[in-house]
Amino acid sequence: MSHFNRVVRVPGDPILGLMEAYRGDPNPAKLDLGVGVYKDAQGLTPIPRAVKLAEQRLVDGQTSKSYIGGHGDALFCARLAQLVLGADNPLLDARAAASQTPGGTGALRLAADFIGHCLPGRGIWLSDPTWPIHESIFAAAGLPVSHYPYVGADNRLDIEGMLAALAEIPRGDVVLLHACCHNPTGFDLGPRDWKRVLEVVKARELLPLIDFAYQGFGDGLEQDAWAVRLFAAELPELLITSSCSKNFGLYRERTGALLVCAATPEKLLDVRSQLAFLARNLWSTPPAHGAAVVASILDDAELKSLWSSELDGMRQRVASLRAGLVEALQPYGLAERFAHIGVQRGMFSYTGLSPQQVQRLRDEFSVYMVGSGRANVAGLDAERLDELAAAIAAVCR
Ligand code: LMR
Q1: What CATH code would you report for 67-299?
Q2: Which residues of the chain are in CATH 3.40.640.10 domains?
Q3: What's the gap in Å between 36 CA and the centre of ligand 1?
């Protein structure tokens, strides 16, 4: 008898699979616009200097590799909660706290398990489109997954469609919102949109889960947190998932957190007891290194200022690549068609290219992007924008 006879093969992850396909492509002119990692002018995903300095201090000063607690590194949790909610946010006295998780993905999975375990029967509503892994994480936790419109077939933000759909969501359900740098589209809500969403959330008594994976990559560390802080101030209860992968360049160190805002200090303790219980079944205790690095940076004025200026540099580079690509498309008469690339925020652009055009870019020009037409603008090479524009023009003809 074979135990594995009935195991069927499933397709590989569409985003991580692109990384492998790109690595295997012998074309020296290949271009990787797939997975969301930042690249510098040399085409490298750098370790920020602030991270290197913090790591050096850790190597010299660390005295133990014993477990850290169920909620992770207490200093990391305190400093990250301040970064997300604002250093002087009164909620931090007793009504809000962070639990460290393995990356933002771990935070999402912990939130999913929390909802499934402690709020049974609640469904989750995701933007259409969203990061594909949102779909599978919540489904894996047994939650009914539904969608609200976000970007229409015309590749524009559909705020009216979104609001109309949110107004129909069953009372008490969970709505996942992207704080900034929407993945995959790059289209963000403006302040007026956020206020309108907040009104519907209040009227329908929805529980928002705000995914905050790109703090600092949109308009700045403080600016990107605006909507999160608005929701935290206006609502008694809120879940926030935070990632340090992109803004600290700590991708492989799996560093993130799930933040909870509760109506009372007592309720916060109840919720956190459940999170520790659920996390114990998922990963026991979180990995220490990345969180220790972030804690040393955020707890040291000099390192924090170095890190924040390095992050400013990354954001500005991505903004100039966006503008540069639109300009490079000008000679082909395509600048207007692709003007949205300059308006979108963060690493990604929903280019509006069809799956067939994406496939041609890959087959004919070794340009790799996700089949949905999502391009990682942060992976562009400023010296090769003309080349890319020519390739896009060729597949758009
Ligand atoms: C992406 O969307 O490319 C990133 O968030 C990386 C990932 O894990 O998918």
Answers
A1: 3.40.640.10
A2: 67-299
A3: 5
- The residues of the chain that CATH labels 3.90.1150.10 are 14-47+308-396
**Distance between CA atoms of 109 and 140, rounded to whole angstroms?**
9
Q: Ligand 1 atom 4: the closest Cα is on which residue?
A: 36
CB 319 within 8 A of CB 216: no
Query: With a threshold of 0.85, does the pTM exceed it?
Result: yes
CA of 334 to the centre of ligand 1 (A): 28
CA atoms within 13 A on the CB side of 94: 6
Instruction: Determine if the peptide bond prior to 129 is cis (ω within 30°).
Output: yes
Taking the C-alpha atoms of residue 356 and residue 361, their distance in angstroms, rounded to an integer, is: 9
Write down the architecture of domain 14-47+308-396 according to CATH.
Alpha-Beta Complex (3.90)
- Set 131, 173, 194, 224: catalytic member: 131
Exposed, middle or buried by CB within 10 Å (0-12, 13-18, 19+), for 394?
A: middle
Residue type, position 291, single letter: A
Which residue, 164, 167, 210, is CA-closest to 188? Answer: 210
Selection from 377, 126, 133, 105 nearest residue 245 by Cα: 105
Nearest ligand 1 atom to the CA of 34 is: 3
Residue nearest to atom 2 of ligand 1 (CA): 36
187-196 confidence digits (pLDDT tens):
999 999 999 9
How many angstroms separate the CA atoms of 38 and 153, rounded? Answer: 28
The string of pLDDT tens digits covering residues 293-309 is: 999 999 999 999 999 99
Encoding tokens for residue 156? 């524009």
Backbone angles phi and psi of 380, in degrees to 5? -70, 155
At 112, the amino acid letter reads A
